[in-house]
C-alpha cells in the first residue's frame, strides 16, 4: 500500500466495496499513481475488501475517516453491479459522495465507469446532466483514464 498525502488539491479517490471490478480499479489506480497523482482507495471500512474474482485489497482510507478538510479532484466509481449495490448500502457513500462533501467544490468531478452505470441508473443516482458528473461512455478504460489524468493535473 502506498500512503498518499491528502493535502494536495489534485487528489484522486477510487471507491471500492466487496465485488469491485478488479481490472477497472487496478488499471485506474496504476495509471493515476504512475502519472504522479496522489490516489487513494476509499471504502466503507478499513477491512480487506474482496474483488469480483477474489483479489483482496486493503483500502487506504474508510469514508468515515475523511474529514471536511479533505477534498478530491476526482472520485471514481468503478464497475460491477455488486460493488455499486454495496456502496449504495453504505451510509458514508451517501454523506460523503452523493452529497459531494469530499469533492472539491470548484474543480471536483464524480467519475462513473461504464460497468457502474446500470446500477447507478437503477438507483436514480447521478443520472441528471451535470458538469460535475463524468461518464466513461464508449471510451476504452485506458483512454478515459488518460483524459482524467490530464484533467486532474
The CATH topology annotation reads as: Rossmann fold
* Number of H- or I-type helical stretches: 5
Number of domains: 1
The CATH superfamily label reads Class I glutamine amidotransferase (GATase) domain
Mean of the pLDDT scores? 88
Name the strands of the widest sheet in spatial order: 5-2-1-6-7-8
Helix content: 25-40%
Describe this structure in words.
The chain has one domain (12-152): Rossmann fold (3-Layer(aba) Sandwich). The chain has helices at 22-34, 81-88, 91-98, 117-122, 141-152, and strands spanning 12-15, 39-43, 49-50, 56-57, 61-62, 74-77, 109-112, 133-135. The mean pLDDT is 88. It is an alpha/beta fold and 153 residues long. The protein contains five helices and eight strands. Helix 1 packs parallel to helix 5.
Summarize the structure.
The chain is built from 5 helices and 8 strands, in the order βαβββββααβαβα. It has one domain (12-152): Class I glutamine amidotransferase (GATase) domain (Rossmann fold), CATH 3.40.50.880.
Keywords for this structure?
single chain, 6-stranded parallel beta sheet, about 150 residues, Rossmann fold, 8 strands, 5 helices, about 30% helix, two-stranded antiparallel sheet, alpha/beta
What are the SSEs and their pairings?
Blueprint: E1 12-15, H1 22-34, E2 39-43, E3 49-50, E4 56-57, E5 61-62, E6 74-77, H2 81-88, H3 91-98, E7 109-112, H4 117-122, E8 133-135, H5 141-152
Parallel strand pairs: 1-2, 1-6, 2-5, 6-7, 7-8
Antiparallel strand pairs: 3-4
Helix pairs in contact: 1-5
